[in-house]
Every structure is written in C-alpha cells, then in structure tokens.
Specification:
The chain folds into two domains: 2-8 and 23-129, P-loop containing nucleotide triphosphate hydrolases (Rossmann fold); 144-217, no CATH class. It is built from six helices and nine strands. The protein has helices at residues 2-7, 39-50, 56-65, 81-94, 111-124, 200-209; strands at 24-27, 99-103, 129-133, 144-149, 154-159, 165-171, 182-186, 190-196, 213-217. The strands form three sheets. The protein has a four-stranded antiparallel β-sheet, with helices on one face.
Length: 218
C-alpha cells in the first residue's frame, strides 16, 4: 500500500502526498496470473513501448540475465511465480525513469537471479533513486542503503562492500553516547553504530571501557 501511495497509484485518505518525480517505474508485488500472452509476446510489447530508450541487444541481454529464454513460448498464466516475477522486474528495469519502485522484487527468485538483480540495482542506484521492500535475508547490495526495519521501527544503514564505513553491533546495559557515527537501537539491549573506518578503533576502545559486549564488526 505504501509503495503504491508513493507511486501515485493510490491517493491518501488523510494528509497530502508531496513528490517531485519527473519519471517513475514501478514493479508491483506480482504480475497478474490471468494474462493470456506468451512470455515472448509480453516482452515484445515491453520493447515496443520502450524502444526509444533501450536497444534490442540490451533487451536480449536482460532476457539472458533473467534466464527467460527457456520460457519464451509459454503462456504467462502457465508460468511459475518466479518466471512471472522476472517478467515483472524486466518491465520495470527497461523503462527510463528517475525513480524506480519495486515491491518485494526478490520474492520467488532463484539464487542466481537474486544476485544479478541486487548487482543491477546497485548499478542503477548511481544514477536514480530506488525504493523497494524486501524480506529476503540472503540479498545484499553494493551501495549504501537507508532502510526502515519494521520490527525495530528504526532507520538503519547498510554499507555493503564500502571500505570507508564500518558497522559495530554490540550489547550494552546503558544507552551509549557518541559524537561520531549513527546509533541505531536494536532489541534486547543491543545497538548498531555506523562509523567511518578511521574512527573504528576509537569507538571500540570506548565500548570496551563501558563494559559493552562487542557482537560483530562488519
């Protein structure tokens, strides 16, 4: 519901949606099962709608990376959830946009496709804003992500493959105070702090002095 509000597909019942978005592409959480088109026919339609922004060669590469070739002659309604999800992702990726919104894009995907999509989104994040929801624990990105954890109700930051930043997860009976880094409260007296790598040893030393238990540094 929230992503559909951001995308402008739903109107809020209370308050005002304010968004300065010039172009947007959206992948909902599912592709309708009742589509009578074949996979090839659907892809052809997507290409005709976006051929000013993507070449046939680029489209074919996306088909290859998403492993759709074996299913080109299948009716979409006869395809598995994973294959329908790949088509859903394809239509969102090929559309030119400033903002890309994806609702559970990794759901139903095999390991290889998850890895490809995560890398592709990391690449696209250099030139556009990407908003997505995800419940798949085995998915990682190569960009800095601002995330909202529903369970802890806190904003969190992930810095994957970024040597300039480190994250410390620790346990403490008192709420620590830091001048450096961004502190996030986790369940069970646990905390996460994101800091510049240059400040890592200083913060670790402080935590040890405060009798905190260091759980993980990543």
């Amino acid at each position: 519901m929230l992503l559909k509000l951001i995308a402008g597909l739903y109107q809020p019942t209370l308050g005002t949606r304010i968004a300065n978005i010039s172009s947007l592409s959206f992948a909902p959480d599912y592709l309708p099962e009742e589509l009578s088109l074949t996979v090839q026919e659907y892809i052809d339609t997507i290409y005709l709608m976006n051929k000013k922004s993507i070449t046939l060669k680029e489209m074919n590469l996306q088909i290859q990376y998403l492993d759709l070739k074996p299913y080109l002659l299948y009716k979409i309604k006869d395809c598995s959830k994973g294959t329908r999800q790949k088509l859903n992702i394809l239509q969102a990726l090929v559309k030119p946009c400033d903002v890309l919104i994806l609702d559970e894009p990794f759901s139903g995907l095999d390991k290889n496709t998850k890895s490809y999509l995560a890398n592709k989104l990391s690449e696209l994040a250099e030139t556009k804003t990407i908003i997505l929801t995800n419940h798949e624990a085995d998915v990682t990105f190569k960009q800095t992500l601002q995330t909202y954890n529903i369970e802890t109700q806190h904003e969190e930051y992930q810095n994957i493959d970024n040597p300039l930043y480190k994250t410390i997860i620790f346990e403490s009976q008192t709420i620590p105070r830091f001048k450096e880094g961004k502190l996030t409260t986790l369940p069970d007296n646990r905390y996460s702090i994101q800091t510049e790598a240059a400040q890592l040893n200083k913060i670790l030393f402080y935590l040890i002095q405060q009798n905190s238990t260091i759980i993980e540094v990543k």
